[in-house]
Structure formats: C-alpha cells, structure tokens
Write a structure and sequence with these properties.
- By secondary structure, this protein is an all-alpha fold.
- The chain has one domain.
- The chain is built from 2 helices and no strands.
- The protein has helices spanning 18-32, 41-56.
- α1 crosses α2 (41-56).
C-alpha cells in the first residue's frame, strides 16, 4: 500500500493545542538545561515525544541523556 498523503501550503499549529504545549515545554526544557542546539535530530524528536506524553497525562518514556554544550 502506498501512502499518498501530501501537504500543500503552510502548516499551522493552534496556540492552545496539546502539540503546541508540548513544543513549548520542549523549548523551555532546552533553554533551562542548556542543551546543545546541534544535538542529533533523534534527541530533539525524543524530547518532543517525551513532552507530548507528559501533556497527554501519560507516563513519559525515558529519553537518552541530553547532549551538553561545549
């Protein structure tokens, strides 16, 4: 089966959506813990997923150790 899903135009995230809250939580964590901005993509996706689970009220999954600056 071929996935024929496509996106055209800009993607909009509602200001009060759970996804937006999870993104803002991820951003806050990254600033407060001084995470290396050049961290691997899998770290950022894992951190977002962790935050998303927290916003849903689920038990967040364990994520890999955060990369430190410097």
């Amino acid at each position: 089966m071929v996935d024929s899903t496509s996106i055209s135009g800009p993607i909009v995230v509602k200001a009060d959506s759970r996804e937006r809250v999870a993104f803002e939580l991820m951003d806050k964590i990254s600033h407060s813990e001084e995470i290396d901005r050049s961290a691997p993509r899998r770290y950022w996706l894992g951190l977002y997923r962790h935050c998303w689970h927290a916003v849903q009220g689920d038990e967040p999954e364990t994520i890999e150790e955060r990369p430190r600056r410097g």
